[in-house]
Automatic annotation (TrEMBL):
Keywords: Membrane, Transmembrane, Transmembrane helix. Residues 113-258 form the SGNH hydrolase-type esterase domain. Pfam families: Lipase_GDSL_2 (PF13472). It comes from Nostoc favosum CHAB5714. This is GDSL-type esterase/lipase family protein. The chain crosses the membrane at residues 12-31.
Length: 277
């Protein structure tokens, strides 16, 4: 868990400068999706408290993390959630999902908040549903959910995926009534350009199917009274596939991809999510 997002790195600023048109597109797309009539300034928050004084959690390095079992991941996230629950950091935001959320660089997360990352590599909607209780005692302002791509890879039907999503939303609304729940769209894959080791499994999933699944997910979110953030227009090319510059292997995101995601979260938070008093 990162105590708060660090200063935006210099290399990221240069990247943003050289991709100014892309960042403008991010702003325009988010603006259009939300149909907002006004753009509010950046929301400032008090200096976030530090969690560095809490007992240190033995977190494996990057190499060993790939070798952790699912239960080891759950144990680590349980410890991190306990720290957040005990210390009650202000302006807590939680990332919930699979490897896409898990590997979100802490230094790229939007500033002015404390972030608790509850992602697990290879996670499915069913697995996530069973472990949501891990952070029951935390008091987040916002919970960002992205889940579903691994369900598709494993051959799960759309009906099961959507039913699990409904249950996830219901659970979070019940356990965190004051938190704003933001369901994020399932990102497409790189199609023929994918180099991920499970490439054949990706190619068996039509990105059109993901798009239709997201449309139903958006409808469910509206009926349940939670937010929906459609990231797909920011990440797809003309063919509807994940853009090469935003991915490392057609499934996972590159640093450039995380910069776009960060920008979307930052802008969405400024114009759509109201801070809790």
């Amino acid at each position: 868990m990162s105590t708060s997002a660090k200063t935006f790195p210099i290399w990221a600023f240069f990247s943003l400068l050289t991709n100014g048109i892309l960042m403008l597109a991010v702003i325009l797309l988010i603006w259009q999706q939300q149909r907002l009539s006004a753009f509010f300034g950046i929301i400032t928050s008090p200096e976030p408290i530090s969690l560095n004084n809490s007992p240190q959690i033995a977190t494996p390095d990057l190499g060993r993390r790939h070798q952790l079992t699912y239960q080891q991941w759950v144990d680590i996230l349980t410890q991190e959630a306990k720290v957040a629950a005990d210390q009650r950091p202000p302006h807590l935001s939680i990332l919930v999902g699979d490897s896409l959320s898990l590997w979100f660089p802490p230094e790229l997360l939007p500033e002015g908040k404390n972030w608790l990352n509850q992602g697990i590599s290879g996670e499915t909607s069913n697995g996530l549903l069973k472990r949501l209780k891990i952070f029951d005692r935390t008091q987040p302002e916002v919970i960002f959910v992205m889940i579903g791509i691994n369900d598709l890879i494993r051959g799960m039907s759309d009906g099961v995926i959507l039913d699990n999503q409904r249950q996830i939303i219901n659970y979070l609304r019940n356990k965190h009534p004051t938190a704003q729940i933001v369901v994020q769209s399932i990102l497409p894959h790189g199609a023929e350009s994918a180099t991920w080791k499970g490439r054949e499994k990706l190619l068996a999933i039509a990105n059109n199917r993901i798009r239709e699944l997201n449309q139903q997910l958006q409808s469910i979110s509206a009926k349940k009274g939670v937010k929906y953030l459609d990231l797909c227009p920011l990440f797809t090319n003309k063919q509807g596939n994940l853009r090469r510059e935003f991915t490392t292997d057609g499934l996972h995101l590159s640093p450039e991809g995380y910069i776009v995601w960060r920008s979307a979260l930052q802008i969405y938070g400024e114009i759509e999510l109201k801070p809790q008093r």
